[in-house]
Design a protein that fits this description.
By secondary structure, this protein is an alpha/beta fold. The protein is built from nine helices and twelve strands. The strands form two sheets. The protein has an eight-stranded mixed sheet with strand order 7-6-5-8-9-11-10-12, with helices on both faces. A four-stranded antiparallel sheet has the order 1-2-3-4, covered by helices on one side. Helix 1 runs antiparallel to helix 8 (234-241) and helix 5 packs across helix 6.
Length: 267
């Protein structure tokens, strides 16, 4: 299981996590891509994924989905080690998930080594996220997660207003579009993404740790967008404050202030 593996886009490395008996780190072309715990799929190691967790548990309580007549429908744009897909599968009975991964050899490597549930629970679809999303049916997903990187940045085509409108079309009523945005200290990319989402969706929020929001370092910002009010009450904020890396919620007019001076991404 350990070692270096050739994939379509370069090289993948699977390393043992020294702090966990059955935990592994997946690196793609030298960049840490995913962390998985084979004994506990509900364990999330990456901080930005821990910030995503309450979006599900509070916004989409498991009790609302009986696993029969109503199943949670999740689309993952970007596969990696399928950490979030494994978490959703363990947290929601009979959830239906599609994971879009550009690299066919990486998808197979992850399927074989990381115990990803089989279809129809989790379907790994090899393809370009820019091309796959426009082919999906209207109102066919409850949650869409965009977590695609080429190196340290998300391909521009996946950040445009037209792409956000495709996500909006594919989301069902009450659905949420979740985006992982990596940015440098100047926050120019994150501000442009905020401006783009504000042009498309009625409700936009963002989550990050305070030093990142103050422009002190490179890091991750998790964006949430929906055409219906987001469930961001006290329980949601408390879950962020008590995370191992505490995070701050920015919502409403504060997002517009954050995006001041930035133009929506077009093209």
């Amino acid at each position: 299981m350990f070692g270096e593996f050739p994939i379509d886009t370069g090289t993948a490395v699977i390393e043992a996590d020294p702090y966990g008996a059955n935990r592994y780190i997946l690196k793609v072309n030298g960049v840490p891509s995913s962390h998985v715990d084979l004994d506990d799929p509900t364990y999330l190691d990456f901080e930005y994924m821990r910030w995503m967790e309450p979006i599900f548990t509070i916004g989409f309580p498991a009790g609302q989905f009986d696993g029969r007549a109503r199943k949670l429908r999740v689309l993952h744009l970007g596969g990696g080690g399928c950490s979030m897909a494994r978490w959703v599968a363990a947290s929601y009975e009979n959830a239906r998930q599609v994971v879009v991964e550009l690299d066919a050899k990486l998808a197979e490597l992850v399927r074989v080594n990381f115990e990803v549930p089989r279809a129809p629970l989790v379907r790994l679809r090899v393809g370009d996220a820019a091309q796959v999303l426009p082919t999906l049916s209207d109102a066919s997903r409850d949650v869409i997660i965009r977590d695609v990187f080429a190196g340290s940045t998300t391909p521009r085509v996946l950040t445009t207003a037209s792409y956000a409108r495709e996500a909006q079309r594919v989301l069902d009523a009450g659905g949420v579009y979740i985006m992982n945005c990596g940015d440098t200290a100047d926050l120019a990319g994150a501000k442009a993404e905020a401006a783009t989402l504000l042009e498309v969706f009625e409700h936009v929020a963002m989550v990050a740790d305070p030093p990142m929001l103050k422009g002190r370092r490179y890091g991750n910002i998790v964006f949430l967008a929906s055409d219906e009010p987001l469930k961001l009450g006290p329980a949601f904020e408390r879950s962020l404050r008590t995370a191992p890396l505490p995070a701050q919620l920015v919502a409403g007019e504060a997002v517009r202030r954050f995006a001041t001076g930035a133009a929506p991404i077009t093209g």
